[in-house]
Specification:
Pfam families: Hexokinase_1 (PF00349), Hexokinase_2 (PF03727)
Keywords: ATP-binding, Glycolysis, Kinase, Nucleotide-binding, Repeat, Transferase
Distance between the termini: 99 Å
Oligomer: single chain
Family: Belongs to the hexokinase family.
Number of helices: 24
Structural class: alpha/beta
Organism: Stegastes partitus (bicolor damselfish)
Number of domains: 3
CATH class of the largest domain: Alpha Beta
CATH architecture of the largest domain: 3-Layer(aba) Sandwich
CATH topology of the largest domain: Hexokinase, domain 1
Number of strands: 20
Shape: elongated
Largest sheet: 5 strands, mixed
Strand content: 15-25%
GO molecular function, one term: ATP binding
Helix content: 40-55%
């Protein structure tokens, strides 16, 4: 840093540390074990980044931001990957040997997440430490291991890497000399000295032209007085040892290549292997032998070998550069997403504003302009267990429409038996005329009654209609506004029960007693109240979002009477339509609203319901891609398509209920809330409301 005159700058640093490390993140590496004759104490089991930072701090005359700990093998792959984007394997064949490759994240159990890939440092030097290579280890391999600083460890590396190759040759020559096969049995102190034959000597001896001459020089220095025949034999020994190394590396690399092919599910693999290391580069025959053997072992792969240019330095810098870019990107992404992380203070403020809107909806003088409508449902009680009979239920709330027969039996063993059929509502019907929509509904009812063989019975019917309605009685509901993509004409401002009755008359095939119009939220509450009498709130978090609850009659100013309670359908999807949530709405919420069928309406629903969550995510993805943070800045045609990112994808990625329960507990600490999952609120619930309505009707008739 002094030489480069950059001591005053705090630069991002990449740390090439070519020893087995356990990494939990890019800038942390715990040394598993020393290799290559290193033995410094107090380092195994420690984070080498912390140790390096400590040493920099101790020195005190410069600062550094360590972004990444890089294994030299990974550095090799990254360097070659810069020149060839197909490069997905890195190999070192030098003093030590190792490999890395890009593995599918779904196969890496130690790391969370299933999408994309991650580079795996195999640390294959330890291959065989479990005894799996015992059948091919020789007496010379065992002798080398016994004399090493780490007996029983890194056995594959001791068989194949440059650090041990010269020593393997020396041990073989000693044995051959002892048996009188070389040097006329002469054994000198030099020949018996460990380390006297180095890997560079093996490389020199194997050279085609001057190899024998070099062999003579090396053996003469060892004092064994070699003959020409000795030199030929020693050259042959060197060839056998180095050839074995190339074969072993080819076999293990073959294992990686076949895995890559399997991961990709291709008939033929095309890939590039980045390669570095003194043995590969300096040995005259090594590279050719390796390439030839790999192609023989993995014939269904087209492998290009690319020599790395300073992998441990350039590669470390590249990993650091990528890490630095990703860190900055992550910071900006977090900043973007921070708007969605509402603090407890913000949520308490939303709670407070909701209370204000509830009051506005319930009061006679503010009800008209209130956005949270607080609509009376004329459901005055929850089930008491005496409900009995056969009921028909209709469920209209989305692109599918259901007709159900619900058989409710009271007594000691209360039972609810349901039969149902699902019918699709084509988009042209959803957005056609009101008459076409209700004729389609009646056609579906007719088909169901035929299917059940019940066309002659005049059954009481509950109509689950999951859209904002102003109810004037249990069996009269005026549609306030369409939501969820519906646009049928001549319905808004009309009584939907009357529209249904008129369509039944037009059909002239059957009669039904329409007892109740039901909101799915109320149905949900009633279904749960049948099982749990303390249930007094219904909540839907699905395609749309809404809530209802049992309110004191004295607080519902738009309905006459002060005694008892009535269920109020909040229609909270419209919360914020008056601008009261603008401070927490994001640019993405605004984009979703602008592109919707009902701009400016149902703003709260658009922030939190299933119909829009996927679309919010899509808007975020488009923005992050435009800023170059995702998908290499390329917005695909698919991503441009509205509605392509479905909410079910979010469900697969994130678990929405745990967070919900936890937050309710935090925001309402004095309330002991029990959450009960509703079983078919819109079907069973509609039948129960109808049953309660029939019971109430009988009571009213008796009183009059």
């Amino acid at each position: 840093m002094e030489k480069q005159k950059i001591k005053d700058k705090k630069l991002p640093v990449g740390f090439t540390f070519s020893f087995p490390c356990a990494q939990t993140k890019l800038d942390e590496a715990v040394l598993v074990t020393w290799t290559k004759k290193f033995k410094a104490s107090g380092v195994e089991g420690a984070d080498v980044v912390k140790l390096l930072n400590k040493a920099i701090k101790k020195r005190g005359d410069y600062e550094a931001d360590i972004m990444a700990v890089v294994n030299d093998t990974v550095g090799t792959m990254m360097t070659c990957g810069f020149d060839d984007q197909r490069c997905e394997v890195g190999i070192i064949i030098g003093t030590g040997t190792n490999a890395c490759y890009m593995e599918e994240l779904r196969h890496i159990d130690l790391v969370e997440g299933d999408e994309g890939r991650m580079c795996i440092n195999t640390e294959w030097g330890a291959f065989g430490d479990d005894g799996s290579l015992e059948d091919i280890r020789t007496e010379f391999d065992r002798e080398i291991d016994r004399g090493s600083v780490n007996p029983g460890k890194q056995l594959f590396e001791k068989m194949a890497s440059g650090m041990y190759m010269g020593e393997l040759v020396r041990l073989i020559l000693v044995k051959m000399a002892k048996e009188g096969l070389l040097f006329e049995g002469r054994i000198t102190p030099e020949l018996l000295t460990k380390g006297k034959i180095e890997t560079k000597h093996v490389s020199a001896i194997e050279k085609t032209k001057e190899g024998l001459k070099k062999c003579m020089e090396i053996l003469t220095r060892l004092g064994v007085e070699p003959s020409d025949e000795d030199c030929l034999a020693v050259q042959h020994v060197c060839t056998i040892v180095s050839f074995r190394s190339a074969n072993l590396i080819s076999a293990t690399l073959g294992g990686i290549l076949s895995r890559l092919k399997e991961n990709k599910g291709v008939a033929r693999l095309r890939t590039t292997v980045g390669i570095d290391g003194s043995l590969y580069k300096m040995h005259p025959q090594y590279a050719r032998r390796l390439h030839k053997t790999v192609r023989r072992l993995v014939p269904d792969s087209d492998v290009r070998f690319l020599l790395s240019e300073s992998g441990s330095a350039k590669g470390a810098a590249m990993v650091t550069a990528v890490a630095y870019r990703l860190t900055e990107q992550a910071r900006q992404i977090q900043q973007t997403l921070a708007e969605f992380r509402l603090s407890k203070t913000q949520l308490l403020e939303v709670k407070k504003r909701m209370r204000v809107e509830i009051e506005r909806g319930l009061k006679k003088n503010t009800h008209e302009e209130a956005t949270v409508k607080m609509l009376p449902t004329f459901v005055r009680s929850t089930p008491d267990g005496t409900e009995n009979g056969d009921f028909l239920a209709l469920d209209l709330g989305g692109t599918n429409f259901r007709v159900l027969l619900v058989k409710i039996r009271s007594g000691k063993r209360r039972t609810v038996e349901m039969h149902n059929k699902i019918y699709a509502i084509p988009i042209e019907v959803m957005q056609g005329t009101g008459e076409e929509l209700f004729d389609h509904i009646v056609y579906c009812i007719s088909d169901f009654l035929d299917y059940m063989g019940m066309k002659s019975a005049r059954l009481p019917l509950g109509f689950t209609f999951s859209f904002p309605c102003h109810q004037t009685s249990l069996d009269a509901g005026i549609l306030v506004t369409w939501t969820k993509g519906f646009k049928a004409t001549d319905c808004e401002g009309e009584d939907v029960v009357e529209l249904l009755r008129e369509a039944i008359k037009r059909k002239e095939e059957f009669e039904l007693d329409v007892v109740a119009i039901v909101n799915d939220t109320v149905g949900t509450m009633m279904t749960c109240a049948y099982e749990e009498p303390t249930c007094e709130v219904g909540l839907i978090a699905g395609t749309g979002s809404n809530a209802c609850y049992m309110e004191e009659m004295r607080n519902i100013e738009i309905v006459e009477g002060n005694e008892g309670r009535m269920c109020v359908n909040m229609e909270w999807g419209a919360f914020g339509d008056n601008g009261c949530l603008d401070d927490i709405r994001t640019q993405y919420d605004q984009a979703v609203d602008e592109n919707s069928l009902n701009e400016g309406k149902q703003r709260y629903e658009k922030m939190c319901s299933g119909m829009y969550l996927g679309e919010i995510v899509r808007q975020i993805l488009i923005d992050l891609t435009k800023r170059g943070f995702l998908f290499r800045g390329q917005i695909s045609e698919t991503l441009k398509t509205r509605g392509i990112f479905e909410t079910k994808f979010l469900s697969q990625i994130e678990s929405f209920s745990r967070i919900f329960l936890q937050t309710v507990k935090e925001l309402a600490p004095k309330c002991d809330v029990n959450f009960l999952l509703s079983e078919d609120g819109s079907g069973k619930g509609a039948a129960l409301i109808t049953a309660v309505g029939c019971r109430q009707r009988e009571l009213d008739a008796q009183q009059h």
